[in-house]
Amino acid sequence: MNQDTIKGQWKQLGGTMKQKWGKLTDDDLKVAEGNSEYLAGKVQERYGIARDEADAQVREFEKSLRH
Questions:
Q1: pLDDT tops 60 at residue 1
Q2: Contact 36, 3 (CB under 8 A)
């Protein structure tokens, strides 16, 4: 799944993202709207982890969608 596809299916992916990152709010996901940079920033903020770890988690999530 490429970035455009992820953006196109953002609402459908919301449930999957909430399963993975339960601390994210619906508003967080709505504002992110396919923006992986913003999503990583929110994951970092909500979970108190380093930015590179949050980026890695978001990249891994996107990679899992491609299979």
A1: no
A2: yes
Domain encompassing residue 45 = 3-65
Residue whose C-alpha is closest to residue 61's, from 4, 11, 12, 6: 6
**Which residue has 């491609």 as its token pair?**
66
The two tokens of residue 37 are 């940079």
Task: Give the pair of three-digit tokens for residue 38.
Answer: 């913003």
Structural domain count of the chain = 1
Cβ contact 32:45 at 8 Å = no
Is pTM, for the whole model, over 0.70?
yes
Q: Residue 27: which of 40, 16, 39 has the closest Cα?
A: 39
